[in-house]
Fold this protein.
Amino acid sequence: MEELPLGALRVRGWSKGCDLCWKGAKSILFITGECPLYESCFYCTIADWRRGKRDLIIVNERTIEEESSLIEEIEYSSSLGIGITGGEPSIVPDRVYEYVKLLKERFGKEFHVHLYTNSIGIDEKTLSILYDAGVDEIRFHTWDERKWVKMRLAASFGFSVGAEMPSIPGEGWVKKLILLSSFLDKIGADFLNLNELEFTPSNRENLLRMGMRPRIDDEVGVEGSAEAARSVLEYLERETGIMGYFCPASQKEYQVRMRWIRRASNIARDYEMPTDEGTLIYGEVSGPEEKLMIIFRKYGGYYKDGKLLMRADSFEKASKEIKKLGLSGRLIEVMPTEERKVLQVYPLEFILRSRG
């Protein structure tokens, strides 16, 4: 068993989808908010505002209303593949077909597509649609042993097939996951992915009511989840031939940061600078126009709505002169997304102190 960064665990490798995800090379397509199992899934992490909205489509942090926006987002993120989730994608197979076809035609057959499903809409007809569209990998999420046969059916189509489940602490849950790993091995499936059970606003009350608590060193991960995953993977390594992987809650933040790094350099405006964390940062100077033009002529920038926007390195070089002219200034760090959500503001005085 390999010990990976962030507490991740791996046995015999991982799926192509996971490999691309770790590199930040996967975009996430939320293809519908509809799912009939919300009430029966006590640990569901989907935000309440997304639930039940059949026609809600989001790629990464961006709501999609036109196909061109999806293509643009993939290009901005330099993605080599996409993961399709929901809601439950299998209840909108025609929509999945449309988007996967679009992506494969635009980016080529090697553009990797994996799809999550609780199996509720999976049958031969749906699998045929997914196969014809070009879906490469299917990750099943179901505790119901009666539905596990659908994994065998999917494998017969030629998909890369596995299960992706939360690692829930407790002897009964661990035994069920061990049973699942044996079943996957028996049918010739490829992998079992275990996700660290995590607290979210949508499931927090349910988890606390069941006696679960956050890890001491992390307010998100559930105490005992990582240990449960290790027990399952130890069995999987010893008794099966499939791949096994434990994905810690912190990996999701890491994956987003890696995707941001790829995206930031593609969308940065002339006055924005990508950071090592994948964010964007720029300087903003405000004050009388004639004084702003003094800074502009010497250091460059972009004049907009009575403010001078400039590269962070130029802002730092100009900081003393900005202060001397009596102008207001600050560095602004934002997400590399369409709306440029502000993450941090560094006042001019802070920059002056840091520069000595």
Notes: The longest helix spans residues 249-267.
